[in-house]
Every structure is written in C-alpha cells, then in structure tokens.
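To whoever is on call:

I kicked off a structure prediction for a single chain this morning and the downstream step that reads the tokens threw a length-mismatch warning. I double-checked the sequence; it's 196 residues and nothing unusual in it as far as I can see. Pasting both halves so you can look.
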Amino acid sequence: MRIFINDQFSHIPPEELQHALTSLPDWRREKALRFKHRQGQSECALSYLLLQQALKTVYGIDSQPSFLIGEHGKPTLAEHPTIHFNLSHCRTAIACAVSDSAVGLDIECLGRYKEPLARHVLNDEEFAAVLSAPNPDIAFARYWTQKEAIVKLTGRGIDDDLKNILFKYNNVSIRTEVHADKGYVWSAACFTTSPR
C-alpha cells in the first residue's frame, strides 16, 4: 500500500483551481462544481488529480481512470480491477491510497472532538482513553480515522457497528499518522487475511 498526501493546497489560487477543473473528465468536473464553495471544489478536483499521480507513480498508468461503482458506492478502476484505491479529504489535506489489495483511508482535520459525537462513535473504553489523553482532540481523531478507514475498506457503509468496529475486524491492519503541526490525522486500513 502506498499513501500520497497533498497538504499544500488550502490556498490554491483561483486560476490554478480553474486549470485543475479543466483537466478533469466531464463527470468529475461536474461533481466538483456541485460544491458551492471553492474549498470543496478544490478538494474534489485535487483528490482526483492525486489519484492520477499515484497511479502513474506506482503503476505507470498515464491515462485518465474510468470507474465502476460497487453495490455500496465504492468505486473501482474499470480497466485495472486488481488495483485498489481510496480517497479522502478534509480542509487541510487530501489523501490517496493505492494498493494491490483492498484498502480504506480516512483523513480528518483536528478540532472535531465533541463529547456527544465521541459518545456516539466510541465504546466506553475508547471514550475513557480520549478523556484521559493529553490531547483529547488528537486521541479522538485517531479513533475516528481508524474506524472510518475500516468502514471504507469493507465498503459496508456507516451502518456498521462503529462503537465496536475496531474489535469486530480482527483481520485488519491499520496505520495511523498524526500531523498535529499541519492539523490533521490519517489512517489507512487493509486486510491481513482474506475478508470474511
């Protein structure tokens, strides 16, 4: 699994965004333009371009990828079914994972910790760990991104048991990195054995 991060785009000038949008296939440009604010448009456009960069760097693929959408909305590469990818973005960074096996990725900005949300997605042990952490916001972001990475890996959506998902999938390996200086945390998940 290879991870690509772009955390230098938050101040993209309008002319660079326009250039990025014009380089996208029609369907992706339309998706990006559905965002009302430039930030959302930038995240959507640049995440696709980051995927193109990752595919070229790792697999030597120069052409624009086309996608098939799975039963739960998870996209796959139409011409390269053995290559797996996942995209994620937040206000401060975009991320792309590419792999020869299924992968899930989530990146989140720091500052999302709120007690009601934490109680909703964390089990009692995790919630206690967040409360006792030197920085509860970072501790919460670690758990949140790990859980979201598993959700995206499995492709089952957020109807899965979020409180216990880290224990439910004991055949998953998770890598997490905290970039407090840049204001984000990311986690990537892959299966260590065949999925059930």
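Update from on-call: the warning came from a stale cache, not from the record. Cleared it. Sanity check on the structure: The CA atoms of residues 113 and 137 lie 5 Å apart.
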